[in-house]
Amino acid sequence: MYDVMMRPLVRLQVAAYELRNREDGQTTTEYAILLGFLAIAIIVALFFLRNVLRGLFSDAASSVSNAPG
Questions:
Q1: Is 42 helix (H, G, I), strand (E, B) or coil?
Q2: Which of the four, 4, 24, 34, 69, has the lowest number of CB atoms within 10 Å?
Q3: Most distant CA pair in the chain: distance in Å?
Q4: 3-state DSSP call for residue 53?
């Protein structure tokens, strides 16, 4: 009788232990942090290169508008 009552409790403890020690959520969090740093790096790079990019897009736009046709 004692064995029948203890099995669900032991299963619950094992499930709680496995849930606590899973590493799936950790990798997802690591990817989210990496993606955040990458987004910040891109924004900073665009901020410092804005004049160069503005010139490139202006040259491309003038080339398209002066194209024959």
A1: helix
A2: 69
A3: 93
A4: helix
pLDDT tens by residue, 7-55: 888 888 888 888 778 776 667 888 999 999 999 999 999 999 999 999 9
- Measured between alpha carbons, how far is 41 from 53 in angstroms, rounded to an integer? 16
Q: What is the dihedral of CA 31, 33, 34, 36, to 10 degrees?
A: 120
Question: What pLDDT does residue 41 have?
Answer: 97
CA–CA gap between residue 12 and residue 18 (Å, rounded): 10
Please say whether the beta carbons of 7 and 14 come within 8 A.
Answer: no
Q: How many residues does the chain have?
A: 69
Statement: residue 62 has pLDDT above 80: yes
**Would you state the structure tokens that stand for residue 41, as one six-digit string?**
């790096």
